[in-house]
Amino acid sequence: MSLMDLRHIDHYFKDFISRIAPDSSEQLLKVMSKLSKAISENNSCIELSDGTAGNEIIEELKSLKLSGPAGAPISVQGRKIYLSRYFHYEQFIAERLISFNRESLVFDRDQIRSAINQDFNSSHEPDWQKIATLQALTRQLTIITGGPGTGKTRTIAAITGILQTALKHSLRIELAAPTGKAAIRLSQAITEHKGTNTDVKTIHRLLGISRDGSRFKYNDNYRLPCDVVIIDEASMIGLTLMYRLLSALPDACRLILVGDPDQLPSVEVGNVLADLCKQQTGYNNSFRDCVKQILGIDLSFNKTSNPLDNSICRLRTGHRFSPHVGIGSLANHIKERNPSLPQTNSSTSIHPTSDLLHGDKNTLLVAEFKDYLEHLKNGETDPRILAETFEEYRLLTPVRDAPLGVEDINQTLERELESLGLKTSLDTFYHGRPILITRNDYTQNLYNGDVGICVSINDLKELLVAFVDKPGKTRLIPTSRLPPHETCFAMTAHKAQGSEFTRVTLILPADPSENTRALLSQELIYTAITRARATVKIFCSASIWKHCMENRGTRVSGLSDFFTHNV
């Protein structure tokens, strides 16, 4: 990183350090600027290189009392330099998870065996869904990971059902996800499995976010009144939110984190789930004996000594996709960082971006919205039908203000609506406009990433925006009361995280700027294509694909170190 890359706020932080420690060397102040810049890129710290220069920086921080004493702005862990806040967050998260990682039986082993075998009838050996469920029923901390279609949501439903049935609803169970869309999707999936409505909250609502978004009701001093907390899409949780969540949990609360560590990390500082999954963990003899006794499964012995042993279970068997064909094969191609363009097959297709740049872009883009546009042309006003149809398909891109970016594609689709007589050039709001919320509004339970459809309902003069909160429940919000928002015929892959669609198109830029190239990564493509349940279409050049496979979006963090130091 050169000084030319630094922002005004990075120089401001350097000036702040020079004011509170006037004897700071120029080299130290440069490091402080780089720390500020690194945090803006969602790293929790920076790592100094080995050698004399790094040692001198560490010693200078201590001698100037910038690190060490309570209340010092900087913390040092090995050769990593932190703002003290993020050092404290990582240290607390590690200590809290280690304290949770212990045996915790909720009922006897015969009951557990009967419940698991009744819920899962599988010939897969070993059945990792069964093992994950057993972990959740016998241990206080369980971290369940896996790719698309490996049964993560099905396992959540099984765990929830077994706990509620066996204990006759005496347990207080909370389910949550980082975004409103992810919460709705989990609620729908569990409802389909159990046949009863299940309330799934956003993590912010679970923690009792205040109306102005400045504080949480539940915290270290006033804990959540619950016995079990299950969090889906845990890859989206940043360092600060994980700290807030763990602070609010009762000491005896059972915690189950579920997610895919190969997806894009949080849009906030940190990459918590991926850091947890980097641990070299295994199962000790006690848990292996438990699995053998209850499930009749022999787990291979993995001699490790990690504070997270027995807590992490990776689901390996694909139930939605075959690993050898279609989306499953494409996902594996990406996870292997294969630099060659994947082959087209019945459910995935690859096209050169030039088809859109030099061909009939309008026709190609509009064709994907055929069903939705037909509803609009036919005068459909039922918000549920419009929302369900729109949610069948999503067009994703990593960029906003560029050719084939979010704004360009949205404008293309809106011009098509004008040509069909479905809006005028003066209309900001119009019937059928898909709207993406871009800032949380806690007073109305609208969250960044929520999608609604603008509708004109017969007897109402004002256009309203319909948000489907859960199956069968739709809220209508006046356009005047919407928080910041935008049109979303297209959206970024980050905004789609936590959602699922039947069909997905991903458009990668043909000639990206240097800043955009930094965004194009293996995790971005993997996250985008795994939003699809049935088909994926990718517009991409061979050179951009190769760049993405070589660009892994690794963040600098020291969370793993805290587990190593506890061994």
From TrEMBL:
Q: What is its EC number?
A: 5.6.2.3
What are the alphabetically sorted keywords of the record? ATP-binding, DNA damage, DNA repair, DNA-binding, Exonuclease, Helicase, Hydrolase, Isomerase, Nuclease, Nucleotide-binding
| Superkingdom in the source lineage | Bacteria
- Name the enzyme's class: isomerase
Q: List residues of the AAA+ ATPase domain.
A: 138-331
Task: Please name one Pfam family that this protein belongs to.
Answer: AAA_19
What's a Gene Ontology MF term here? DNA binding
Q: Which SUPFAM superfamilies match?
A: P-loop containing nucleoside triphosphate hydrolases (SSF52540)
Per the record, GO CC terms?
A: exodeoxyribonuclease V complex
Q: Name one GO biological process term.
A: double-strand break repair via homologous recombination
Q: Which InterPro entries does the annotation name?
A: AAA+_ATPase, Coronavir_polyprotein_1ab, P-loop_NTPase, RecD, UvrD-like_helicase_C
Residues annotated as binding ATP = G146, G147, P148, G149, T150, G151, K152, T153
Q: Which reaction does it catalyse?
A: ATP + H2O = ADP + phosphate + H(+)
Q: Which family is this protein grouped under?
A: Belongs to the RecD family.
| HAMAP family to which the protein is assigned, alphabetical | RecD
What's this protein's function?
A helicase/nuclease that prepares dsDNA breaks (DSB) for recombinational DNA repair. Binds to DSBs and unwinds DNA via a highly rapid and processive ATP-dependent bidirectional helicase activity. Unwinds dsDNA until it encounters a Chi (crossover hotspot instigator) sequence from the 3' direction. Cuts ssDNA a few nucleotides 3' to the Chi site. The properties and activities of the enzyme are changed at Chi. The Chi-altered holoenzyme produces a long 3'-ssDNA overhang and facilitates RecA-binding to the ssDNA for homologous DNA recombination and repair.
Subunit annotation? Heterotrimer of RecB, RecC and RecD. All subunits contribute to DNA-binding.
Recite the other comments. In the RecBCD complex, RecB has a slow 3'-5' helicase, an exonuclease activity and loads RecA onto ssDNA, RecD has a fast 5'-3' helicase activity, while RecC stimulates the ATPase and processivity of the RecB helicase and contributes to recognition of the Chi site.
Q: Which PANTHER family match?
A: DNA HELICASE B (PTHR43788:SF6), DNA2/NAM7 HELICASE FAMILY MEMBER (PTHR43788)
Query: Which NCBIfam families does this UniProt record tie to the protein?
Result: recD (TIGR01447)
Q: Would you tell me the protein name for this molecule?
A: RecBCD enzyme subunit RecD
Taxonomic path: Bacteria, Pseudomonadati, Pseudomonadota, Gammaproteobacteria, OMG group
